[in-house]
Design the sequence.
């Protein structure tokens, strides 16, 4: 193998690895979620929603709030138009959640997380997440 062929082969190998790295980085990232600033300091009873960015066609957002180590709020909404249910459903009202057996969130602050996710091969796949505090 002469020097010219060796240099071309080496350059090709470097290019292939660079493309693989970019593909992996794009697959791992590229999605984001953030609390919309309409309510900069949410409190119990506030309505919050999120700005999301993703290439997934059927993303969901889940919000979970914890108060004193106990989950007091947990909801998930489709962030796309579903032919069955409509949507997208983007507002979360931070109040007591009757779907949780132990939930009686009548007041007080909580630590919350919002997760952007989708379903692939019957499994939930996380795309991005953020945290926020609910003021007392």
Sequence:
């Amino acid at each position: 193998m002469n020097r010219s062929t060796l240099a071309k082969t080496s350059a090709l190998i470097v290019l292939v690895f660079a493309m693989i790295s970019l593909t992996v980085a794009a697959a791992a990232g590229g999605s984001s979620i953030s609390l919309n600033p309409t309510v900069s300091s949410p409190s119990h009873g506030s309505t919050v929603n999120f700005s999301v960015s993703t290439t997934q066609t059927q993303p969901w957002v889940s919000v979970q709030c914890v108060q004193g180590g106990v989950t007091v709020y947990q909801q998930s909404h489709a962030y796309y138009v579903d032919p069955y249910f409509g949507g997208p459903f983007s507002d979360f009202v931070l109040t007591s959640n009757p779907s949780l057996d132990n939930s009686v969130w009548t007041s007080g602050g909580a630590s919350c997380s919002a997760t952007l996710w989708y379903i692939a091969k019957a499994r939930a796949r996380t795309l991005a997440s953020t945290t926020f505090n609910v003021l007392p």
Confidence is low (pLDDT under 50) at residues 2-28. The CA atoms of residues 44 and 94 lie 6 Å apart. The beta strands are 32-35, 47-48, 50-53, 60-67, 70-78, 92-93, 110-120, 123-134. The domain at 32-134 is CATH 2.60.40 (Immunoglobulin-like).
